[in-house]
Amino acid sequence: MPGERPMRPHQIRDDPAHAISDVVPEELRQQVKELRPAVDVGRGKAPYRQLLPGVIQAPADWLIAWGRKGSLWPLTFGLACCAIEMIATFMARHDLDRFGVLPWPSPRQADVLIVSGTVTKKMAPAVKLLYEQMPHPKWVISMGACATNGGPYSRYDRVLQGVDKIIPVDVYVPGCPPRPEALMDAILALQKKIMEERGQVGR
Amino acid sequence: MALQQEHELETIDLHINVGPQHPATHGVFRMILTVDGEKVVDCDPVIGYMHRGAEKLSENCDYRQAIGYQDRTEYLAQFNAEWTYCLAVEKLMGLQVPERAEYIRVILGELNRVASHLMFMGAFGTDVGFFGTPFMYAFREREVIQDFFEAVTGERMMYNYFRPGGVAWDVPHDFEEQCRYVVQHVRRGVEELDALMTDNEVFLARCRGLSPVTPEEAINWGFSGPMLRACGVKHDLRRAEPYSIYDRFDFDIPTGTQGDVYDRYLVRMEEMRQSLRIVEQALRQMPKQGPVMAEGLKRTIRVPPGEVYSRTESPRGEYGVYLVSKGGDKPWRLKIRSAAFCNLSALKNLVVGNYVADAIIILGSIDIVLCEVDR
Amino acid sequence: MPQDAGQAPVVERLRAILPQVPWEFVATPNDPAIVVRREDLPHLMQTLKEHPDLAFDYLRCLSGVDHIDQLEVVYHLRSFRHGHTLAVKVPVPLEDPHVPTMTHLWQAANWHERETHEMFGIVFDGHPDLRPLLLEEGLGYHPLRKSHPLAEIEEWQEDFLEREEALVAAAAPPGARAEEDERAKKIALAQKKAEVIKRAREEARAKGLTGEEERKYVQEALRRLEQEGG
Fold it and tell me: pTM higher than 0.95 for the full model?
């Protein structure tokens, strides 16, 4: 209506008329649970899996996944314009610290690599090296259009059309740049993903 | 005895790579420092990790589509970049921008300058050792400014609002009261930042007297903006080569004395206050109604053949756009002369002879925006 | 659009100080522009910087332009003492893209010339360090030339990898490929030797040889391999 403020994002989410399905729909979640990988990567040789299998496994998996998702430490890796919105997400208004997210400068102690900005072919080896320097378990959030597929610069030949050409990506965030709320949504989606794939992927 | 022994020791200079990913470098910038003990002997900056070809892509874009690339090139002072580009197109086409649009441009441009300097305060303070606190203070004000920009243009960062001939649409009906609230809020925030940082003993000890620059050197090296004004050269493009309606406003040009890091910080702090002064004057003088776009512009802009170099005073210095047009609806050559590129080219002269930790502070005081340096 | 009468005062001054240099005046908004020949450039720029009436001490911008039949270098200058500005345009032929450098006059020209060199292929004679600034070394093409096209949108990851390898192979000098073949040959030889040693050792153990005899058996096998190869 003219004169009224447009609906804010949180109002659209809570409004049943605008309800969107959850991150992973229920039937797909069931299908994923029933899938068994060809090579048994999830069932490792950890002691807690050997003692009383089934009894200790499920709660231990839940505890480990809860610990991992509650304290995701991203590497401070701001490349371009999306970095400003990433910094704004860490700041007081859209606080990410309440989710346990703490920006950490060293790749050796970081969990998540938030690729925020365009990756050029000159920078690609450095990104790959940083990803390989991070110890498992690690995840990658590709923030913004440039990291997803090259974005507005995809027609230039020195630009890597998407960071997923060199490292595996877990969550893609659209936008140029994505709002801080969108990045928060991505972190929450990653937390959901960590919880859902607990014990099934050999991280 | 001990001194004698030291002189007989053979030493090798160490190469330290302040790599593309570093918590202190603003964006992906690489310095190869050659250090002798703790003193820097040589510095080789390597840029180009963010070279995305905005100039080449603009050659294949409409004149209105290229505004988006200007936003993303200078992503902290977007309005200044758009303004320079629109000035270039308007000069070639001979367009007359209506009064109300000029005032809107001035208000938004100056608030953008404040936002950019706030980001500098945050990043520079983190480099010097405050480590995160100035970011918190500065972003509180930046969020208020960004909310205001979102109400006017619809976007938090890449506004895409200025057009050749004016601005894209008129401002909301409560523009003036929102703007006054923003000015009042930001003024208080600037005073708080000042009280936090300026008289801090450690800050003074680290920054006072670090890498002083004489005016002749600064002009030869191609400095502009706060880097040049900190050396004592009272040169501001809004006064020296006035564009738009800047000759109607009354504001001071802060200058420093030695050109060291602390002077650059003081100049930027004072510039924020002067920008808020300009915004208040513009709000008072702005016409209440009027067109915001020049008449008679078609859906596709065709610019007559010619070339122009237009420049504005962006928060980092002189942002210039050299536009060559050969008729048609696409630019033939769009060269962006970015202030950070020219300021950064003298990094070796500034850093050599100082300690490694000071090299980081000097880099922070230049206030680079990597997308502008690499385009 | 060349006009004969220099309307700007700086152009009048220039005409008075350097009458023998042939140049054309082009009217552009904001700055007066003159077109000069390459040969006159060093002397002209020296005078522009050092003459007290001109005193152009600030190099604002150095751009390259690709008009398809020729290249062009454009210098934008400003004088802090007098406040006047000037643009100097130098046409550069495609077959011989050399221009004298200006780094000895304005240090700001250093990075600008490096960038123009890698983007257009214009060589600045006398530049202290003409490495690429924004692009990687040894790329083999100049992106901002009109002859270089925009990239295609890549859909599959294999396309990207193939194209990168093709680019690297095309840009590498022929000597590099020969070195790689040498290295590949050495690696293959070492792998063959390791296999022979492993097989010989297994055979020796099967026959029941130990210690010194086993070692002699393995060395026999290696000598046989070398004879075959050599």
Answer: no
